[in-house]
């Protein structure tokens, strides 16, 4: 579906509080998994580095700065 930034720019996240909360929970779960299971710090989490699929499942991308 595209970058989370596109959804933010379109105003979709402002109009849909439930979707916004669900996406935030997914971000927290992804960061927790990366830190505590994979021992990776992303170091560049921003809207442009979060993409969504057709079911609004979140994916973190661009691990160029990760440690």
How would you sum up this structure, described in words?
There is one protein chain. With 67 residues, the protein is of the alpha+beta class. 46% of the residues lie in helices and 12% in strands. It is built from three helices and three strands. The protein has helices spanning 4-10, 12-15, 17-36; strands spanning 2-3, 50-52, 58-60. β2 and β3 form a beta hairpin.
Strand content: 5-15%
User: What kind of oligomer do you see?
Assistant: single chain
Question: Helix share of residues?
Answer: 40-55%
Shape, per Cα inertia axes = globular
Structural class: alpha+beta
Number of helices: 3
Integer-rounded radius of gyration: 12 Å
Largest sheet: 3 strands, antiparallel
What is the rounded distance between the termini? 28 Å
**SSE series:** EHHHEE
Q: If strands are numbered along the chain, what order do they take across the biggest sheet?
A: 1-2-3
Number of strands: 3
Overall mean confidence score, pLDDT: 92
């Amino acid at each position: 579906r595209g970058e989370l930034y596109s959804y933010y720019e379109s105003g979709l996240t402002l109009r849909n509080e439930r979707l916004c909360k669900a996406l935030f929970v997914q971000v927290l779960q992804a960061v927790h998994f990366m830190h505590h299971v994979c021992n990776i710090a992303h170091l560049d989490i921003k809207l442009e580095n979060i993409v969504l699929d057709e079911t609004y499942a979140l994916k973190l991308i661009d691990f160029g700065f990760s440690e």
